[in-house]
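Let us practice reading a record.
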Amino acid sequence: MTFQLSEKAKQLIPKARIVSFARWQGLHSAEIIQRFQAADDERRYLSDADLASLRPDGPGYPQAARILRENAPEIVADARGQVLAQYPGICESGGELYPPARAEACWRDFWHFLRCITYGIAGGTTEFTSTEGLENMELLYQELRVPLGAMVLGLEYLKAAGLQRVEPQLRDRLAPYFDCLIDEMKRFQPQPSA
């Protein structure tokens, strides 16, 4: 069985962007916002140079963003393992993440979710999501019949695994950055039945 994207899904993918920096005016300089935007456009984590450009007395947590970036493969692997433990047949034939290319797309989404959360953490604001982008992501997930329960659970495990890797005194302060995206995805509706 192969995994083919519909035309609708192909049209939604570039519009399904989690992040928007529109509300960051006044919080950061135009140059800093452009650095964040460039990272998002390139679908990459913030570089050391990007993080070093932030004001030391600024609102964000650049060191925590660096730690999460450096541990992203392990954090995503932990979350994936937890999802597979909760949904043991999800990647097998007949499961919601079968064939393997479908599962790989979901694990890649976990990597991108964490990437986007690190932007908020580095920038010091939970106002990092795009309403329009998330609406398009919801439509994309409906089109692809993404198992929303597993994806939200995966985000919660990303949060748990990520917070384990930062200093204990920062965990309560960083949790809302994860919760922002978790709460948005909990509002997604599954594909209506035909």
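A brief commentary: The longest helix spans residues 100-123.
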